[in-house]
Amino acid sequence: xxxxxxxxxxxxxxxxIGLVLGxxxxxxxxxxxxxxxxRAAVVAVASTEGVALPTPQxxxxxxxxxxxxxAGPGNVVLREEGGRCCGRALHGLSGGQFVMFLEQRAGxxxxxAGPRSLVPxxxxxxxxxxxxxxxxxxxxxxxxxxxxxEARDQRVRRDAALTLPYAAGLEGAEPRVRGAVVAALQRSxxxxxxxESMHLVLSAARLRLDEALPALLSAYLEPRDRTLDGxxxxxxxxxxxxxxxxxxxxxPGDPARAVRLLATLDTPAADAPLRRAVRTAPTxxxxxxxxxxIRRHGADAAGLTRQLDRDGRTALRAMLAExxxxxxxxAPGGQR
Length: 336
Fold this sequence. Notes:
Helix content: 40-55%
Oligomer: single chain
Largest sheet: 8 strands, mixed
C-alpha cells in the first residue's frame, strides 16, 4: 500500500493502491470544475459507504457508482487526522454522493485538488461535469460553460462565472455565448447573484460587450462594492471609449466617479464632459478634470486657466497653479 503524509498529516488508502489526499492551497480553493476535469484522469460519481466519525482519525469509504471519464478504482477509503483544519476534506462529511476527480502519480491515486476534488453530486452538478468531460473543442467548452451561467444550482452558476474570463477562445465566442454573458451580468448587477459580478465583468471586457455598457456604467456610477468598483474602473476603458464618454455626459450619478473614469479614457470624446466638469464640478473633482485636460493638451493650459478666472473659480485656479509648479507645464505629446 502506498501512502503519503502531506502538511496536514492526512493520508488515504485504496485497497492495494494508495489514494492520497494532498494539502489544499490557495490555488486549489479557486479550482473550477472545468479545471478539475482537465486535470483528472478519472472523474467518477461515488457514494459514501461509511461516514467519518469524530475520532483521532477520520475515515470514509466511497463506492464508485458511475465513471464519467477514465478507468479508475472501485472502492476508495479516505483517512485523515481528526479535527477541523484548512485543507481537510473529511471533517463534518456526512453520507451522500460526490463527484470525485482523481489522478495517478507514482502508483498512487490522488485527489487532484484536495477537498475541492470532492463535490456534492447534485443533479445539475453531475450534468454540468458530464458535459464538460464530453467537450472536444474550445467552442464546445465555451457553450457548456455559458449554459452553466443559467443553471439553477448555485455551485454550477458561480463556477461558470469564474471559469469564463480565462477560457480559451473567448474573444471569438459565438452569439449565444455573448448573449448568455450579457444576461448573466445584468442579473448579477441587479442583485441576483452579486458574487458572480466581478468575473462576469472580466468576461464582458474580454468579449468587448458594448451592449452591456449601460448596465456596467450604472453599476459604476452607483457604488455598491469597493472591489467591484475597482474592477469596473480598470476594465471599462477596454470597451468603446467614445461611447462611454458620451454616456457619462448624460447619465446621473456621482460626478467625481464620472471624472475618475473619464480620466482613464484615451479619446477626444472625453474632452467635452471633462471641460464641463471643470466649470461645474466641486473643486477637487474639477481639479482632476482640469489636470487631465492639461496632461492631454498642454498648449491649452493657459486658455483653461483664463477660463477659470472668468468663471470665478479662484480656488481651483490656485490648485492648478500649484500642480503646474510641481509637475511643470506639460507640452503636447506628453513632453514637459
